[in-house]
Amino acid sequence: MILILLGPPGIGKGTQAGVLSDVLKLHHVATGDIFRKNFKENTKLSKESKKFIAKGILVPDKITNQIIADYLSQTNLNSGFLLDGFPRNVLQAQFLENFFAKSNLILTKVIYFNAGAHDLMKRIIGRRICTQCGKVYHLNNIPPRVQGICDKDQKE
Description:
Blueprint: E1 2-6, H1 13-24, E2 27-30, H2 31-41, H3 44-54, H4 61-74, E3 81-84, H5 90-102, E4 109-112, H6 117-125, E5 127-129, E6 136-138
Parallel strand pairs: 1-3, 1-4, 2-3
Antiparallel strand pairs: 5-6
Helix pairs in contact: 2-3, 3-4, 4-5
Enzyme class: transferase
Pfam families: ADK
GO molecular function: AMP kinase activity; ATP binding
C-alpha cells in the first residue's frame, strides 16, 4: 500500500501520518526527515539545498525530486509506505508519477486535508519543532511533557 498525504502547512499531515503508519504498519516517509538526514550526512544535494534555505526560499524542484528519489531508491519500502510532504506542486507530482512507473510502484490513494485560513493560522502559531530531531509539538494540542524539552531526545 502506498499513500500520499497532501494539504497546506499546519493541517496535521505529519500527525495523521504518524497515526496511519502505526495502524497500517507502513513506513512513514516524511520529506522534512529526509532533508534532515541529508543535512546530517552532509550530502552534495544537502549542500545545494542549504544555499536556498539560507536565503529563505524553497529548494528547487530538481534538487527536492532527486533527494526524494534517492531516499526511495535506497530504502526498503516493500511493505508499503506513506509519503508526507511531497509532492508540493504539479511538477513534483509528475516527477513522482514517472518515478513510480519506472520503479513499478502503484499508488493506492491520495488523501487531501484542508481547513479554513483562520484554523490553519491558529495551528501554525502554536506549532513548535525540535531543532535536533524534528518532532512536532503544539502548545495547546500536543505539548511536550516538560515545557521547552523534547520528549523524544530530551533537548531544549
